[in-house]
Structure formats: structure tokens, C-alpha cells
Write a structure and sequence with these properties.
Strand order of the largest sheet: 3-2-1-28
CATH class: Mainly Beta
Mean pLDDT: 93
Number of helices: 0
Order of helices and strands: EEEEEEEEEEEEEEEEEEEEEEEEEEEE
Low-confidence stretches: 1-25
Strand content: over 45%
CATH superfamily: YVTN repeat-like/Quinoprotein amine dehydrogenase
Number of strands: 28
CATH topology: Methylamine Dehydrogenase, Chain H
Shape: globular
Helix content: under 10%
Structural class: mainly beta
Length: 321
């Protein structure tokens, strides 16, 4: 297996093949960071095809599309920067120097603030989206990786990989208000639509921690496959990428019991559910593909070729209508 770049510390253009056309009912795009080919690929998920490829540089890894759909923000660990992409025009419109090792990234629900995890420091950088400048830094645990913001925008959660914990940050004061112990080496963190629970993929303990956000504590663990990377949620179910297993583990959100493992491409990493909850999109690093999962039937229904080393770590989907 080829050496991974920076973000693989967690475990440590291209045209799509013909596929079904879901039409206007599936008006969504994927913004996929291809780390080894140094670019960002935009994929029309309704037509199963690549729209364009945008050069980024710096080994892009993390990505977050703003809630208003206007911009995609891309972290480049090697360049120590965040690239701003106009999502509709499909072109780079800004570059923000953040230093360190920018990896995980999240945008506030009002699209005004961007949060960037510095893997090399116990900190999250804060960017003002309007001025495209760093306006502050928030102290968190060691090696922050995945980030997520509650739907009301009041709390930021940081998966602090080397502390086996999640930091809960008050976004108004920009101060850490709680530390929640989870499994070993948490990487991706995802918050549900109600802002009640969070889920971390723990690459060291091969499980998912379930967090009650209001109570500030872990309330359960779900066993999954080898080296889980990130979690996506659909109504009633959680989907977890198992890097070493080449699978996506599915579990029930109520009982926290495993449901199924779905074979996808090699070394799956980034994962998101579409807005309607009917599809789950998986970036597979080794096979250079996106696997498309039917979230109801729990089976792969298509595959799209990407660039080299698709990582897509973050909220990489965008509604187009």
C-alpha cells in the first residue's frame, strides 16, 4: 500500500463510468479532494459524471461546503493553507495562510465562520469568511482532526486524536467548555440534524463513540470494521468507512447495534449522506473511486472514477437547487 500523506496518521480528469441518471430529484454535487493529484474534482451525482477538476496544490485533504452552497473550503496540509473555491463558478477565488498542518475543516451554519483543525498543534484556527482572514485560535486537545458544528452554531466539536477525546467549544467565547473521553484515536466527528448526538470514528479501537452533547458524555460504543475514518448519518442509521476493511459498516441509531457491512472500493475514507438521506457517497483512496450506496437497500449502486488519492474529509456535498 502506498504511503499516505499526513492525514493517514489517523490510521497512523477523470470521467465517470456510465451510470444511472437520477435526474433533478438528485440535484447534488460532490467536491472531492484528490490528495495525490493535488486537485479538487466536482462530480454531478445525478448523472454519475465528473463536471470539472480544479488544481489546488499542497496535498488537499479536508473539504467543507458552506451551508449556503456558495463556497467550498479546502485544506492543504503541505501548503499550510486553505483554498477558497467558488462552488458555482468552479474556480479558486482565495487562499488563506493558516500555518501548521491544516486538516479537518467545518463551516458555521450561517456560512460566516470557517474552523480549521491544526493537526500539528492543539488548536483550531478561526477564519472570517467575508474577509478571508484568520481572526483567532481556539485551544483544544492534541492533534485535532475532524470538526463539526451544531445546527444552531453555538458549539464546535473537535475530535482530538492523540488525546482520545472530543473538545466541546463555545463558539461565542471561543473557549473549550468541556472535554469528553471517547475511544482510541478519534478522527472523524459527525453531529446529527437535531444537534443532540455526535459520533466519532475511533481508528485505534475500531469502534464509534456515541456522545450525548447536552450531557457532555459518551453514552455508547458501536463496534465497526478496521480503522474507521468517518461517519455519515441517514434517518435511523449510521454509516462508517472502514479503511482497512474496504467496507462501510452500518449500524442502527436507536439500538446502536450493527446492521451490515457493505463492500466498497479500496481504503474508504471520506463519507457523506445526501440531503434526502437516500444515498451515501464514499471516497475510496486506493481504488480512486467514489462508491454510491443506496441507503435503504444497503448496497452499492454505482461507482465514479476520481483523481489520485481521493480523501474528501468533511462535508463535501452541495445541493444545486
Amino acid at each position: 500500500m502506498r504511503a499516505l500523506v499526513l492525514a493517514a496518521l489517523a490510521a497512523s480528469l477523470c470521467c465517470a463510468a456510465p451510470g444511472p441518471d437520477f435526474g433533478s430529484a438528485f440535484a447534488e454535487e460532490a467536491f472531492v479532494t484528490n490528495q495525490l493529484s493535488d486537485d479538487l474534482m466536482v462530480v454531478d451525482l445525478g448523472k454519475f459524471r465528473s463536471v470539472t477538476t480544479i488544481p489546488i496544490g499542497g496535498k488537499p485533504a479536508g473539504v467543507a461546503v458552506s451551508a449556503d452552497g456558495r463556497f467550498a473550503y479546502v485544506t492543504s496540509p503541505d501548503a499550510k493553507a486553505v483554498t477558497v473555491v467558488d462552488a458555482a463558478m468552479r474556480q479558486v477565488v482565495g487562499r488563506i495562510e493558516v500555518g501548521g498542518g491544516p486538516l479537518g475543516i467545518a463551516v458555521s451554519p450561517d456560512s460566516k465562520t470557517v474552523y480549521v483543525a491544526d493537526l500539528y498543534a492543539a488548536a483550531v484556527r478561526v477564519i472570517d469568511a467575508a474577509s478571508r482572514s484568520v481572526t483567532g485560535s481556539i485551544a483544544v486537545g492534541a492533534s485535532p482532526s475532524g470538526l463539526a458544528v451544531t445546527p444552531d452554531g453555538k458549539l464546535l466539536l473537535s475530535a482530538d486524536r492523540d488525546d482520545d477525546s472530543v473538545s466541546v467549544v463555545d463558539t461565542a467565547t471561543r473557549r473549550r467548555k468541556a472535554v469528553i473521553k471517547v475511544g482510541t484515536r478519534p478522527f472523524g466527528v459527525t453531529i446529527d440534524a437535531e444537534g443532540r448526538r455526535a459520533y466519532t470514528a475511533n481508528v485505534g479501537s475500531d469502534d464509534v463513540s456515541v456522545i450525548d452533547i447536552a450531557e457532555g458524555r459518551e453514552i455508547g460504543r458501536v463496534p465497526v470494521g478496521m480503522r474507521p475514518y468517518a461517519v455519515a448519518l441517514t434517518p435511523g442509521r449510521g454509516f462508517v468507512t472502514d479503511q482497512y476493511g474496504g467496507t462501510v459498516s452500518v449500524f442502527d441509531l436507536s439500538s446502536l447495534k450493527p446492521v451490515k457491512r457493505i463492500n466498497v472500493g479500496d481504503y474508504p475514507e471520506g463519507i457523506n449522506a445526501t440531503a434526502d438521506g437516500k444515498r451515501v457517497i464514499v471516497a475510496c483512496w486506493e481504488s480512486n473511486t467514489l462508491s454510491i450506496i443506496d441507503a435503504v437497500e444497503l448496497k452499492v449502486i454505482g461507482e465514479i472514477k476520481t483523481g489520485d488519492g481521493p480523501r474528501a474529509f468533511g462535508a463535501f456535498l452541495r445541493r444545486t437547487e
